[in-house]
Design brief:
The protein has about 180 residues and is α/β, with parallel strands linked by helices. Helix content is about 35%, strand content about 15%.
């Protein structure tokens, strides 16, 4: 049994990323301990306030949740062909102080989505660059870029598109094998 942390790149209460995370949570939680690790309360990373004597509580809490997880899935939208600022900030907070990254050597996978046709490809590419420097082995295949995301859910926020369910279920099988 693995402790899997889901990190959602969007701060919006009813975001598509969160809806996907809730689907993964329900499906993965059958054989693992899965939780969503919140990033919304993290102040912007600032080394001036991040000292041993005065580590902000939000930083400390986030880092402890990351340290207590065995592996991660990042579910994120794409903003302006890149990573949302809140997500990049969370990765920065978790990787500090220098030499003490809470993410070090923790396996990860990426799911991106967008209302457009590219499905968050640029954000996923940027995330791969960041995860490489954080020493986070990242699942290479299957890649998951969900396009036209607004068409995937029913009125209750549940995935109604059977093709997307299959993509996510295949992804979860590969991910579980990857983190074993």
């Amino acid at each position: 049994m693995k402790k899997i942390g889901l990190i959602v790149g969007s701060l919006r209460k009813e975001s598509y990323s969160l809806m996907i995370a809730k689907y993964l949570l329900k499906e993965l939680d059958k054989n693992n301990e899965v939780s969503i690790i919140e990033i919304k309360d993290l102040p912007l990373y600032n080394e001036d306030i991040d000292t041993k004597e005065n580590e902000p509580k939000a930083y400390k809490d986030f880092r402890n949740k990351v340290k207590n997880s065995d592996a991660f899935i990042i579910i994120s939208p794409e903003y302006n062909r890149g990573i949302p600022g809140a997500l990049k900030n969370a990765l920065d907070v978790g990787s500090r102080p220098y030499g003490e990254s809470a993410f070090n050597n923790k396996k990860c996978a990426i799911i991106t989505q967008s209302p457009g046709l590219i499905g968050g490809f640029a954000a996923a590419s940027q995330l791969r660059q960041v995860l490489a420097i954080l020493n986070m082995p990242t699942l290479l295949l299957p890649e998951v870029y969900l396009s036209n995301i607004y068409l995937v859910f029913d009125k209750e926020g549940k995935i109604s598109d059977l093709k997307v369910k299959k993509i996510l279920n295949d992804f979860m099988s590969a991910y579980i094998n990857f983190i074993k």
